[in-house]
């Protein structure tokens, strides 16, 4: 268990103050970001999408205004924003370390790791418009990404490249597409984010683009989304209207590469098994190949991932499930899966409740009941799942959840997670008066 250094009266560095405030241990990357005041270069004028930094003096406030309590997971500390509601956040680990950077979407609350360091995340932001699947970004279209000639983004990106020079990041600058993605993966730069882009690209069909499909009069938008996710489900009449007459259905279907998508997902779950989108795509691929047992195993793993890790809109699995429902749960129901374990059965039954609000309420109660009987470390994880497996109902429930999370984290020796949960609780009280 890492322990933070205590602030010295002589130095009073930003690292000392942040570590003392949150009882955490900052990575060297973050220490340099704060103490060398690199954050000043992210003043809203730089060319990157995440171009506005939160000054450290605001982060150490009792209730930082950047935190979105209840919506943002309680182990997230936001440090950079695109000024449109999305954030790059430091994720505090169980050992009190602070290093991983995640992208948190305000629309829906989804999140995805962008790197194990801030330099990786900034570099990914710098190059993601050159990566496969970049047309399926949230909020900002790929066409709005700034190029390398931007007058002010150079210093921020150069800092990231310099920090990554032990992985020869400067050599990647001329690359693009799958070549760039492959090199970033081989050099362990922003792997989860890059692999998600590659999955999106593998399943994207250039013959069935959004622009041409908008011209169709389609009564069932969910059916359309299912067809875009798996072109084999696409209505032949729709295909006939948007592709050339000399293009066969098989040629259209051949544009999707399910084998590649599954290969990328297998790589992702090796180091990031908490990401639901990888299990979802793997399970569906096995299901469509007739491997029911393998599909069920993958979907069961997906059940244990927060719904906020499924990237459902970007990967297009949202056409298969109702509001607030996990794709993995929906597919298991379709396959007629029946859990043998009583705990999993209780959870699965909660996920099958038709009403979205009732479902969230049942899931929260399920994990809260388990947490009350569990040892501290497990109790902390269960209390977190009570709030962020599906999201909790009603909003008032987060007041108690954040308090329970902080108490359990303290008991487990997770001092940084406890302090950050209490900070989220302060923000919840300040924002909602609860």
TrEMBL record:
Stored Gene3D superfamilies: Tetratricopeptide repeat domain (1.25.40.10)
InterPro entries registered for this protein in UniProt: TPR-like_helical_dom_sf
Domain of life (superkingdom): Bacteria
The name this protein goes by in its record: Tetratricopeptide repeat protein
């Amino acid at each position: 268990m890492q322990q933070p250094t205590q602030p010295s009266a002589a130095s009073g560095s930003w690292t000392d103050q942040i570590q003392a405030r949150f009882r955490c241990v900052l990575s060297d990357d973050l220490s340099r970001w704060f103490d060398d005041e690199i954050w000043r270069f992210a003043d809203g004028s730089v060319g990157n999408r995440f171009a506005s930094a939160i000054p450290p003096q605001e982060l150490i406030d009792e209730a930082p205004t950047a935190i979105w309590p209840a919506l943002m997971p309680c182990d997230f500390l936001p440090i950079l924003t695109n000024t449109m509601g999305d954030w790059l956040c430091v994720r505090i680990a169980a050992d009190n370390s602070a290093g991983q950077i995640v992208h948190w979407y305000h629309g829906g609350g989804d999140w995805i790791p962008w790197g194990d360091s801030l330099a990786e995340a900034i570099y990914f932001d710098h190059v993601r418009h050159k990566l496969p699947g970049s047309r399926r970004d949230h909020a900002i279209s790929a066409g709005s990404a700034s190029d390398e000639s931007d007058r002010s983004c150079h210093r921020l990106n150069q800092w990231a490249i310099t920090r990554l020079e032990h992985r020869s990041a400067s050599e990647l600058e001329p690359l693009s597409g799958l070549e760039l993605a492959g090199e970033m993966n081989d050099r362990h730069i922003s792997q989860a984010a890059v692999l998600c882009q590659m999955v999106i690209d593998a399943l994207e069909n250039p013959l069935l683009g959004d622009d041409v499909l908008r011209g169709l009069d389609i009564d069932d938008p969910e059916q359309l989304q299912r067809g875009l996710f798996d072109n084999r489900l696409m209505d032949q009449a729709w295909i006939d209207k948007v592709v050339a007459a000399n293009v066969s259905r098989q040629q259209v279907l051949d544009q999707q590469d399910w084998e590649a998508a599954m290969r990328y997902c297998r790589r992702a779950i090796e180091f990031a098994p908490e990401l639901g989108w990888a299990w979802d795509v793997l399970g569906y691929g096995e299901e469509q190949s007739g491997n029911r047992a393998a599909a069920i195993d993958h979907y069961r793993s997906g059940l244990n991932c927060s719904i906020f890790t499924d990237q459902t809109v970007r990967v297009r699995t949202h056409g298969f499930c109702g509001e607030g429902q996990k794709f993995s749960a929906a597919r298991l129901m379709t396959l007629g899966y029946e859990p043998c374990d009583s705990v999993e059965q209780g959870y699965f039954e909660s996920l099958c409740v038709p009403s979205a609000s009732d479902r969230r309420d049942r899931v929260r109660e399920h994990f809260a009941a388990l947490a009350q009987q569990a040892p501290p470390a497990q109790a902390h994880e269960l209390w977190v799942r009570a709030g962020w497996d599906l999201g909790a109902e009603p909003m008032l429930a987060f007041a108690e959840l954040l308090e329970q999370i902080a108490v359990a984290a303290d008991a487990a020796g997770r001092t940084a997670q406890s302090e950050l949960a209490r900070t989220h609780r302060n923000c919840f009280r300040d924002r909602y008066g609860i």
